[in-house]
Write a structure and sequence with these properties.
The complex is a heterotrimer of chains A (about 350), B (about 450) and C (about 260). Chain A has about 350 residues and is α/β, with parallel strands linked by helices. Chain A is built from 8 helices and 16 strands. In chain A, strand 6 and strand 7 form a beta hairpin. Chain A is globular. Chain B has 4 domains: about 80 residues, Uridine Diphospho-n-acetylenolpyruvylglucosamine Reductase, domain 2 (2-Layer Sandwich), CATH 3.30.43; about 120 residues, Uridine Diphospho-n-acetylenolpyruvylglucosamine Reductase, domain 3; about 190 residues, Vanillyl-alcohol Oxidase, Chain A, domain 3, CATH 3.40.462.10; about 40 residues. The chains are: A alpha/beta (about 350), B alpha+beta (about 450), C alpha/beta (about 260).
């Protein structure tokens, strides 16, 4: 790896660098989690973004990172198909690590983020904090917050020494960093083979871009989530949840029972096995609210539940519960909101 | 008549009239498409609530459908249009008296809750319908529910010592009590057990408890032919007292294997799951004797274990049977029973009906009781198949009657099996049923349409 | 082909799970211990491959307290050929770094062509161990696979990527992890249970594996633990025909829409 452009600015060297891996979509856009990753980093030190973008999209992505508060950005460009799995990501993060000597590295707690964190931790011999829901600094350094057993417990962890690698749960951090004019440094990847010896890494043989039919916000980061359960009765009935989600500009979720019954795609599943969400408003339609489901949503700020069964456990944690038929309540809700111009 | 009047005779919060909530009280597990929309649902909290509701209904001739947890399989608590659903779900107190080994329970308590309360005192309430975690004791009394351990421990009625019942005129009577022996007057307690809410509403039950069951030793045996398996059942039940003796046929085995991939023999014609709960050394002896009897009847493979956890895993095959068969289509669930020596004839006859009507019938049975659950599988979108399934459903009951058996062993007649009742019990017994019903409920307000034909009742 | 499945025993997430508020460790007595659901799917991948393959052997590896042996036996009943159990007092409260080191050392001892794990455990929710182990062993990793194909010399599958899905292929030896999209595991049947009793189960201590729990390397340590206050229920109404309107008012009043 070589650095083709380097422009080291005047910096406040007393503030530690916090590396943040920022995923980029094939369109060149930053993933929605960028703002909270950089927000969390800004609470610990100077946020330094690391970006691996499709060819020709690096610079724009770096600027977008600046908008979210990155003071400095390392970018490289590559093509996903034909490259090794994780390795290119790791190489850019490692190069940025070398250049900045970070006190912490933040990656999103997703499929690629976890792999980056795992490889980096072993390669650098660093401690790792997983599925983190918040961070702060105390006199000894970086402290990570965790929400354990479906948010039954809150714990804090820290490294004994050295850099802490953190996988950050999406949607958990509210901190946002002010926009910055980032110093951009471009890295060059030496092709796809990189430094790995042959036979010790998986390769990506094909990339299929997902065609999102809906314009709904991503479930994990959405401020409002509408979820449907088995109580909606059928795949057709489940569309009621979709209608309300679209009306509110909300993300769409589902209970495991609804997914198992084939009403909704697996990727929508909220709960212990599935996505954990922390929205401002969570509306559960026809969801009984088994412990497993609650584990994925009970940190929502406000919970609304509509269920025919007055004994449904979801009512135990709902701020506003309606014993009734979602097919009666939701259309009336939509109508009223429209009438009031909301 | 309006529901406001009903609300005025009951404490606040008992009466529900909004359609969405009432919807949850219209069906039991029979999912009767003909279920009516009730005038109101009353969620009683005391005997007085039940009395006020029944009195109110009696004065106005309004039907009352008593309801436990809604887990019934015969439509016994299907709502009647314009009637009152009287739900016992909030009456669920349980008091155990370890001294007399009895429990006084309210009808809404779940069977599993009664078991747990008894367990705290080292005691056991044996009847164990498969739905024990979701069915109420009141419903168990109404249907005289059975289960898996009945082969050794008997059915619900064998554990009922006393009842408090609200009669059709609103009076509450106490029958029996915490006494093992009691022959004063007619045995009216028994009269109400299994009466499916047609004679009165049970508001309190005194149950007999026995010491906690010992951990069982569990055996599984497979057979190449149905004949071998039913002969083995007869040989075992005529010489041993296993605490469980369950049967599954080939379609059931295959459905379970599809669902669990647990390595069952897909070619086996039948499988038996048997438990002994004798003290350890005797259990092993009993199970070894049973193993011998299985082999004498050409069992293909026999396994047993004294480890309770492993035993549970053995029984999974039987426990999964209904959910596994349910994955194959819609079900019509039978509950026919025959005297044990006719079990082989019943099993073969059902196989013949299955072939004649070209309908998959998966057969599971509490074999030691001669009580079988043929599960008729059909595709609800195939009208012709659905029709054939309903024909076969009747034919299975006709067959049971022919073999000197019953149309229902533990689920009750409800509304689903009412057309076959007369054929089974005969004219004279039916007349007796009618006379008793008319004597106790002259206005036919208690669960009208369940068990007895309302038109026949009037003539 | 030797496949090793990483088996995790977890507190049953359908029941109550507790942390000790002093030590921060799981209260082992508080909940029933079960095979992690996702581990079941990993076992299923291995066992169903072994059924169809010419020569394949499935070994199971668990790192955990003595109770994990029962879970290993149950897993053997699903069709594993042998089990390996690392059990040592020094493992209490082990962080990811130590856990990965132990698993990697055990795998080196057992030998493997392919390691299969669940992607994310239901108690730790880390999802890091498989890749950490691969890196320590110097083999390829292919984690969070939604579909898996195994051949004599490679493993391939699909997984999520930013803005799409990728198809990945790794030469063996490799470490993979699987998601919930993989088929349900089989139930242990009575034949499996009976034969599991006779299958080998070996135990190892940290010393056996040459791992030092006290080694002075960076570790993650727990600083504090507290119980999250239980969520209270708020207003609950029964729909009398105007619940939709009342909900709209509730949301507007609180500026939630």
């Amino acid at each position: 790896m070589t650095m083709v452009e380097q422009n080291t600015p005047e910096r406040n060297t007393s503030e530690p660098n916090i590396l943040v891996f920022l995923p980029v979509l094939p369109s060149g856009e930053l993933l929605g989690s960028a703002a909270e990753l950089l927000g969390a980093a800004s609470a610990l030190g100077t946020p330094v973004g690391v970006i691996l973008a499709p060819a020709g999209k690096g610079h724009a992505a770096a600027e977008a990172a600046g908008q979210c508060g990155a003071a400095r950005v390392f970018t490289a460009e590559h093509k996903v198909t034909g490259s090794l799995l994780t390795t290119p990501y790791l190489e850019v993060v490692a190069a940025a690590w070398e250049a900045t000597g970070p006190e912490a590295v933040l990656v999103p707690n997703d499929v690629d983020g976890r792999d980056i964190a795992a490889l980096l931790s072993v390669r650098t011999g660093s401690a790792i904090a997983s599925d983190v829901v918040g961070v702060h600094r105390d006199e000894e350094g970086v402290v990570a917050h965790h929400s354990v057993y479906g948010s039954g417990y809150t714990t804090e962890s820290a490294p004994t020494h050295g850099t802490l690698i953190i996988t950050l749960r999406e949607g958990a951090v509210d901190d946002r960093a002010p926009a910055a004019e980032p110093v951009v440094e471009t890295l060059e990847l030496n092709g796809a083979g990189l430094d790995e010896p042959p036979g010790t890494a998986a390769s990506i043989t094909e990339f299929t871009e997902s065609v999102e039919a809906s314009t709904r916000p991503d479930l994990r980061g959405a401020k409002t989530v509408v979820s449907g359960g088995r109580g909606l009765g059928s795949k057709e009935g489940f569309e009621l949840a979709g209608q309300l989600a679209d009306e509110l500009g909300a993300g769409l979720g589902a209970s495991r029972a609804a997914v198992d019954a084939g009403y909704a795609a697996h990727s929508l599943q909220v709960g212990q096995t599935g996505v954990t969400v922390t929205p401002d408003l969570y509306i559960a339609l026809g969801i009984s609210g088994a412990v497993q489901h609650q584990a994925g949503m009970q940190t929502a700020k406000t919970i609304v539940a509509v269920n025919k069964d007055p004994e449904a456990p979801i009512f135990d944690i709902a701020d506003f519960g309606i014993v009734g038929d979602a097919f009666e309540v939701v259309p009336q809700l939509i109508e009223t909101l429209r009438a009031k111009g909301q | 008549m309006s529901s406001e009047e009903l609300t005025s005779v009951l404490p606040e919060g008992r009466v529900v009239t909004d359609p969405a909530t009432m919807d949850g009280y219209r069906w039991d597990r029979a999912n009767d498409p003909e279920a009516g929309t009730p005038l109101a649902v009353v969620r009683a909290e005391s005997t007085e609530d039940v009395q006020a509701t029944v009195r109110f209904a009696a004065e106005r001739g309004i039907p009352v459908v008593p309801r436990g947890a809604g887990s019934g399989l015969s439509g016994g608590s299907t709502a009647v249009a314009g009637g009152i659903v009287l739900s016992m779900e909030r009456m669920r107190q349980i008091q155990v008296d370890p001294l007399t080994r009895t429990a006084v329970v309210q009808p809404g308590a779940f069977n599993a809750e009664v078991k747990a309360a008894a367990g705290e005192h080292g005691l056991w309430y044996p009847p164990d319908p498969s739905s024990f975690e979701i069915c109420s004791i009141g419903g168990n009394i109404a249907t005289n529910a059975g289960g898996l351990c009945c082969v050794k421990y008997g059915v619900t009625t064998d554990y009922v010592l006393g009842l408090e019942v609200v009669l059709a005129d609103g009076r509450a009577v106490r029958l029996g009590g915490p006494r093992l022996k009691d022959v004063a007057g007619l045995d009216l307690t028994k009269l109400f057990i299994g009466s499916e809410g047609t004679l009165g509403v049970v508001t309190e039950i005194t149950l007999r408890l026995i010491p906690t069951q010992r951990p069982p030793t569990t055996l599984v045996a497979t057979f190449k032919t149905l004949d071998d398996s039913t002969k083995a059942v007869l040989a075992i039940s005529s010489s041993m007292r296993p605490s469980m003796l369950e049967f599954m046929d080939n379609p059931t085995i295959n459905a379970v294997e599809d669902a669990t991939k647990m390595g069952l023999d897909r070619d086996a014609a039948a499988m038996l799951v048997i438990q002994s709960d004798e003290p350890a050394e005797f259990a092993t002896k009993e199970i070894e004797l049973i193993e011998g009897l299985c082999y004498q009847h050409n069992a293909e493979e026999v396994f047993y274990t004294a480890d309770p956890d492993e035993g549970k895993a053995f029984v999974v095959a039987r426990r999964m049977a209904i959910p596994a068969v349910e994955q194959k289509g819609s079900l019509l669930l039978e509950d026919v029973g025959v005297p044990l020596p006719r079990l082989g004839d019943l099993v073969r006859g059902i196989e013949a009906i299955s072939q004649n009507r070209d309908i998959v019938i998966a057969l599971i049975a509490h074999a030691g009781d001669g009580n079988t659950h043929p599960l008729l599988v059909f595709d609800p979108s195939d009208e012709d198949q659905k029709q054939r399934a309903h024909t076969a459903y009747g034919e299975v009951m006709d067959l049971a009657i022919e073999l000197g058996g019953t149309i229902t062993g533990e689920h009750g007649v409800g509304r689903l099996k009412r057309p076959w009742l007369a054929d089974y019990i005969g004219e004279d017994a039916l007349d007796l049923n009618h006379r008793i019903k008319r004597a106790l409920d002259p206005g036919n307000i208690l669960n009208p349409g369940a068990v007895l034909d309302p038109v026949a009742l009037q003539t | 082909m030797k496949i090793v499945v990483l088996v995790k025993e977890v507190p049953d997430s359908y029941g109550e799970r507790k942390l000790n508020l002093t030590t921060g460790l799981a209260e082992r007595e508080a909940s029933e211990k079960v095979l992690d659901e996702i581990t079941g799917r990993a076992v299923e991948v291995a066992v169903s491959y072994a059924e169809s393959a010419q020569e394949a052997e499935v070994a199971l590896l668990a790192v955990g307290p003595a109770s994990a042996e029962a879970t290993l036996r149950k897993t053997l009943a699903m069709g594993g050929d042998s089990a390996h159990h690392v059990v040592d007092e020094g493992l209490a409260g082990a962080d990811l770094t130590l856990t990965a080191e132990v698993i990697a050392a055990a795998l080196e001892r057992i030998g493997f062509d392919l390691v299969i794990a669940g992607d994310v455990s239901s108690d730790g929710t880390g999802g890091l161990i498989p890749t950490m182990v691969a890196q320590r062993l110097g083999t390829a990793h292919a984690t969070s696979l939604d579909a898996v194909e195994i051949t004599d010399s490679a493993v391939a599958g699909e997984r999520a990527a930013y803005g799409g899905t990728v198809r990945v292929q790794a030469p063996l030896p490799a470490v993979v992890s699987v998601t919930e999209r993989l088929p349900d595991p089989r139930f242990p049947g009575f034949k499996g249970i009976m034969s599991a009793k006779k299958k080998p189960l070996e135990t190892y201590t940290l010393a056996d594996l040459g791992v030092e729990a006290e080694a002075d390397v960076p570790r993650s340590i727990m600083l504090s633990v507290s119980e999250t206050p239980a969520r209270m229920s708020g207003e609950k109404i029964t729909d009398d025909g105007d619940a939709g309107t009342r909900l709209a008012e509730y949301l507007i009043q609180r500026r939630l829409v």
